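Quick one, probably user error.
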């Protein structure tokens, strides 16, 4: 029987000084020993081949009392070697690693022994067969090829440190899987203290930093792993995602593309990556990634649909076109989908194309696509798409058409489309408010007021409505009249429409500052109206025009009284002018109306 006195005492002492991290719950339940497949150390002549076999035997014996680990029986390994028709004497480290995977070994020991100055140099590796991760071990030398016990003792001495590293690494991974990032980081730090060059520990710590949203620290770890091994697919994807979170779209896309080099035609993976980029609001990079996918699979509907939506997002900010080329990408992708699917095209594709053409101000094309959408939806089975019913889809398209007609300055057609949209779904966003605004543009003030009131009853912001009416009145009817030098040339019809709209705005306004602003413009508007009547009556000083002028001037003070401090200097000038005009109009009336 072989002596073990030089090995076992160290093992017992070594176990006593191991300082292992706290055990996560998933590992607390572990009751069976972890297995190690021990291969004979490959001896190179003139080192005796039996030296390597004896080291392996010593290690298998030592592992019988090594806590938590046990050697796989040599006979069990030989049986499987025979099954695979292999020769143990010619097996390489790769062969032993593959055998370890077959036997579900936790670790595989392989090594070499070569003659060196002053003795035999032994270089041992313990590796995880599936990941390829290695325990930290250092080569050492013994006196000769009869020193197998000393060699085994040194191997077991280093194994204690390696096992501590391995367990710390395992705990790190387990805490990571349990979404406990701080415990994972602590255990990965312990593993790296024992093996600073471990790519696996850096990768797991990087993932833990990602879980903790410490993106800068995650990048440092993951970048190191990728720099060391550019074919590490999981590290590439993690690094790409992390750069996206840091706002470095170029780096994110570069590493995602490297990751996709391993599976360039995997559409599901490309779509998942596109989703990860959009989650980080990296729309331009998303479009580029999807375009590359479409180049490889031009008939893939899922890629084209995602590309349409992503390009629309990438080309606009807050509804304003910021990148027309991106909008054009959405249009082209929609066209490809229509060509591929014909009448079966997804209605949302047609709706997206409509919006794209509308953003490009190509309104005729927008109307054509929206008409196709209406026909496609109307001919569907009525189940709708996703969570939207057919009626909701029809309402959405009619609402888009209303916007198109509004931009084409065909308000009457816009009213018809929006009324149709509301007939399909009363929940069209801002439907009643938009309909009222369109009706104002057609001159249907009574109908507009009714719709504005309905909008407020349905929860619309009355101040928003008041501001919309005020803006429309000022820009479409009021502003031009303030620029007329000769008051007699003021267009009383336009000014009258502006005043009517401003009076309507006062019905809805609740914000004090906006209310004061509207009342100031009403006051100045009535002053202009009175001045227009007076200017036309300057030569004749007739009764009726003077009465009209007086009526307008008398309204000025009432609205100034509610204008607060709005344009205080202008208010003083208006009041002074009003005092003069009130006296003048009263004199004309007394003189001309009694005749």
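Nope, works fine. Designed sequence:
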């Amino acid at each position: 029987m072989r002596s073990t006195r030089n090995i076992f005492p160290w093992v017992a002492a070594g176990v006593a000084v191991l300082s292992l991290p706290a055990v996560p719950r998933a590992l607390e339940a572990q009751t069976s020993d972890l297995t190690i497949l021990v291969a004979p150390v490959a001896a190179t002549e003139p080192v005796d081949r039996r030296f390597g076999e004896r080291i392996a035997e010593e290690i298998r014996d030592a592992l019988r009392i090594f806590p938590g680990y046990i050697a796989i029986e040599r006979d069990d390994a030989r049986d499987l070697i025979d099954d695979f028709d292999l020769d143990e004497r010619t097996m390489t480290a790769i062969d032993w690693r593959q055998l370890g995977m077959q036997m579900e070994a936790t670790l595989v020991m392989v090594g070499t022994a070569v003659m060196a100055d002053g003795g035999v140099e032994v270089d041992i590796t313990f590796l995880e067969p599936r990941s390829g991760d290695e325990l930290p071990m250092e080569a050492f030398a013994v006196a000769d090829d009869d020193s197998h016990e000393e060699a085994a003792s040194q191997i077991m001495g280093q194994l204690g440190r390696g096992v501590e590293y391995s367990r710390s690494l395992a705990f790190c991974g387990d805490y990571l899987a349990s979404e406990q990032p701080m415990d994972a980081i602590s255990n990965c730090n312990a593993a790296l203290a024992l093996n600073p060059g471990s790519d696996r520990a850096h990768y797991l710590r990087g993932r833990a930093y990602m879980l903790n949203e410490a993106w800068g620290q995650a990048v440092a770890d993951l970048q190191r792993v990728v720099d060391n091994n550019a074919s590490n697919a999981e590290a590439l994807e993690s690094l790409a995602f992390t750069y996206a979170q840091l706002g470095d779209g170029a780096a994110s896309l570069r590493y995602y593309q490297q990751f996709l080099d391993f599976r360039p035609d995997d559409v599901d993976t490309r779509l998942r990556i596109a989703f990860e980029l959009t989650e980080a609001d990296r729309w331009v990079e998303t479009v580029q990634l999807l375009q590359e996918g479409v180049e490889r699979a031009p008939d893939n509907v899922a890629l084209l649909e995602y590309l349409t939506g992503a390009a629309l997002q990438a080309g606009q900010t807050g509804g304003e076109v910021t990148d027309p080329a991106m909008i054009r990408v959405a249009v082209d992708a929609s066209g490809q989908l229509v060509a591929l699917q014909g009448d079966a095209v997804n209605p949302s594709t047609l709706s997206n194309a409509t919006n794209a053409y509308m953003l490009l101000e190509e309104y005729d094309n927008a109307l054509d696509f929206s008409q196709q959408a209406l026909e496609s939806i109307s001919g569907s089975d009525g189940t709708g798409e996703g969570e939207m019913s057919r009626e909701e889809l029809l309402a959405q398209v009619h609402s888009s058409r209303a916007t198109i007609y509004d931009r084409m300055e065909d308000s009457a057609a816009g009213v018809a489309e929006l009324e149709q949209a509301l007939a399909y779904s009363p929940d069209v966003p801002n439907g009643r408010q938009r309909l009222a605004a369109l009706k104002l543009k057609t001159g249907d003030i009574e109908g507009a007021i009714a719709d504005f009131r309905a909008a407020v009853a349905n929860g619309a912001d009355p101040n928003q409505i008041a501001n919309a009416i005020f803006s429309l009145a000022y820009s479409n009817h009021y502003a031009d009249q303030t620029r007329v030098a000769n008051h007699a040339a003021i267009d009383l019809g336009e000014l009258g429409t502006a005043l009517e709209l401003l009076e309507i705005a006062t019905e809805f306004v609740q914000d004090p500052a906006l209310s004061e602003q509207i009342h100031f413009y009403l006051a100045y508007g009535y002053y202009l109206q009175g001045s227009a009547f007076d200017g036309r009556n300057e030569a004749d000083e007739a009764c009726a025009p003077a009465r009209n002028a007086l009526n307008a001037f008398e309204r000025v003070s009432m609205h100034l009284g509610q204008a607060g401090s709005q344009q205080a200097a202008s208010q003083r000038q208006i009041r002074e002018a009003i005092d003069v005009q009130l006296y003048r109009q009263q004199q004309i009336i007394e003189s001309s109306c009694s005749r």
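The beta strands are 34-38, 42-43, 69-71, 107-116, 119-127, 140-142, 316-317, 320-321.
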